[in-house]
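Let's practice the habit of predicting before peeking. Look at the sequence and jot down your guess about where helices and strands might fall. Then scroll down.
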Amino acid sequence: MKIAAVDVGTNSFHLLVARVGGDGRIEPLERHKEMVRLGDSAFSGVIAPDAFARGTEALKRFRELADRSGADALIAVATSAVREAENGGDFVRAIRDETGVELNVIGGDEEARLIYLGARSALTLAGRRALIVDIGGGSVELIVGDARDRYYTTSLKLGVLRLLGQWAPADPPTADQRARLAEQLHRALEAPIQAARQVGFDVVALGSGTARAVADLLPPSSEQPRRVQFRDVFALEDRLCTLPAAERARLPGLDARRVDSIVPGVILIRSLLEVAHSDEYLLCESALREGLVFDYVARHRPDIQLVDEIPDLRRRSVVQLMRRFQANQAHGEQVARLALDLFRGTRALHNLPNSDGELLEFAGLVHDIGFHISPSKHHKHAAYLIANTEMKGFSAEEIQLLALTARYHRKATPKESHEPYGRLPAPLRERIRKLAAILRLADGLDRGYAQRVKSVRCRVGDKSVELQVAANGDPELEVWGARRKRDLFEEVFGRKVKLVVEREERA
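Done guessing? Here is the structure:
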């Protein structure tokens, strides 16, 4: 199964497409990032029109990339910029309407939980705890966790774009401005890091684009995970704070869109390491988007295993529907198999394409899901559930055909006075009549839910259709059931139905 995870951050939008095996293992396939910078305006109260447009276009591209990669599921979350903006709800609605992406706006604690899940996958935490820090554009998440669980989380409004907007430094910043920002950060970080120290941690791990950008401005290292020394961070801060923006833009390895935010970012990292009394940080390459994938896997393991079991999307949708509503699987599979015997054996009568045979098989699998609501009128309940449950891989017309074929597997035969059957075009109504006629017979041939009938061969004559029923044991109940349900078949095809039993004793 392929999962696309989207992180709509304050500074950057990220897309991760990963393949997930039935055993839960995750293999990243594609990564994409766009620096949208919603936070440039969002912290003043609203997402500005230009940022709104950049965000919409970025998510359109992400949706196209996810679709092109064949993603089976797309999950997307938005963090502080959307959460705090007055028009954040408008942004969520616009994204849904224009891209089809459903954005879930999450709070700081949920953001921290997902970051922890992602970081845990990238860090070796056996026998030690880490202070995991994610520096975003709007907020900073602090998490203390080990390989088993997290023990402390907090979210601080110290993101680099928020700091930049509040700080408004000269270009380059003066020594006094730099000292005042560091002092502000020390005060803001002391209480939460003291609380984290009470829980206990052995290492400091930083994730996010800012932590990576700082590391990329330092000499390269082959260590994994990469260790970034405090002395190098402090030296880099000294250097950056002497360069105007135009010169910072020429630094190799620095994204031009981080030219302004890298300065408060490096001061924030330096201050954090000072307050944590740490001489280095580990660069964590996994973050919230990886956490989204791991969280999805934990909550959808049966669905992921089903993708391995049934690669075909349409058949998987049908089996999911059957299992979701706890239909009798053995009966559904038997009815589907017998319906195909009848479909293939009466081809000269119905003249339907092979693709309708597949739809008939699917209708057989799910025809009894209405029992989940009530045995009474379960055929109508089945039609409702099929028509109102997402069926991936099916057109609207095919879903109508499935729903109404199941609807008429028992009780009243199709009539133009019935809704919604009566509103359908005549060719589709005729297909439903033929398929329902066959499904009724197949259902009757498993009347006892015992799967006694092995196969059905058809002999089509001018006035009758002889069904040669091969069975294990005595299929008296099944023959009785088929005779009771042959009415629609005889009406549609103008042939009497005769049943001939060929008994075979069970081995």
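How did you do? Residues 175-199 form the longest helix (25 residues).
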